[in-house]
Fold this sequence. Notes:
AMP-binding_CS, four-stranded mixed beta sheet, AMP-bd_C_sf, Class I adenylate-forming enzyme family protein, AMP-dep_synth/lig_dom, GMP Synthetase, Chain A, domain 3, alpha/beta, globular, Rossmann fold
Amino acid sequence: MNETPHTLGSARTLWELVTRRAALTPDRPVLLQEDRVLTFDALRTRSERVAAGLYGMGVRPGTVVAWQLPTRIETALLSFALARLGAVQSPLIPFYRDREVGFALRESKAEFFAVPGVWRGHDHTEMARRLGARGVFEAYDALPDGDPATLPPPPAEGTSVRWIYWTSGTTSDPKGVLHTDRSLIAGGSCLAHALRLSSDDVGSMAFPYAHIAGPDYTVMLLLYGFPAVMFEHFALPDALAEYRRHGVTVAGGSTAFYSMFLAEQRRQPGVRVIPTLRLLAGGGAPKPPELYHCVVREMGVQLTHGYGMTEAPMITMGDPEDTPENLATTEGRPPAAMEIRIVDGEIRLRGEAVCQGYLDPAQTAAAFDEEGFLRTGDLGRLTGSGHLVLTGRLKDVIIRKGENISAREIEDLLTAHPAVADAAVIGLPDRARGEMVCAVLEQPPDTAPLTLSEVVSFLRAKGLSVHKLPERLEVVEALPRNDTLRKVLKYKLRERFSRPLP
């Protein structure tokens, strides 16, 4: 049988997908990073050696292995080595700190924890030991190595839970989202087919590989047989040289990335910032319609935006051949394998790409309705053509640069400050970030007004991750509340403090 992206998508496991692609195009590159090139065959052979090294350390099928590593070729090798073994892996975003990492390690009962050592000024090894993590090992440059002949057979089915991803959701503690190889393959397949990519494309990974987008994107590379440039640390304009050097045709990640590329384009109007670029694509945060039109007009490329979440990495995606109106104002259409139902305005989902639930059985029971549809907590509507329009969120969550941030977690910390009587944390529209974190404080009488720097220093001392720190502070005489339970009316705060996007 001749393999195609559609037949490859039928692979039972991620490892089967790797081996089938390696047999098809062994010498073609899959990952590019600075001067390094990893081919599809090298991905298979080197991952097997890493798997053997892990096996020698005691990692077995079903062993829970957490890893907190940057976007590097070594990270992909370690992840696929764990997939080869059939271990359960729990990726953690590199900028998570004690609160999130400690919780994830405890809840997942991780037996091993791979860290990068000292990375970008933070000692991950010391943090892991401080948290009492088990089986700590560094996996930045050097990876475990062994003889593949010692390995047991690879996993034969892809419906067992082998992935635990973490999302803040609407609670103060993260939620462990349970995925299978098949759910990740389904998500990546939907993304790849929606974007109409080909083996001639060159992609890019400027986001954390530990994000759910990591396997989503890698599945796309395996299906279509094209490479992607990996960025350990993404910053513009520094990264532009790598985009140009490797001839990237598809870039993006989220609304923040579109804005950054557009800002660079505006530095040199009329000169294409990345000559080979033809498509910006992503999701994870609201996209203002005017941003779509600016990108198309000023950069001369197409922009397709989609809707996804940790629980279902690809729900809808814009089609590059769709109308400008649909691409600007909707999140695209769902693939045939994704069912969307709107119940009282809430978006509900059912399909193979949807997660199996959460580590906490009570959270799973609350998240799925009696027909097996996932309650997303997001509000939306379907147009007559089947396009999804997002209209709001039931969940009190802020989406900043594609990452979910729990407002309650920040509020709980703020109310511990002696100069804070009550606090409300809201997301405000922001062109660069999608949303910015704004803290609105009610202070006790005769208290000196707090400054943003004081609030940020206090939250840092409490161990809050950098990406959750407020970027804006407002102090009010009294928070608006309803007349029954005196619940803070956050929509009034959003109305008051939102500003038109520039």
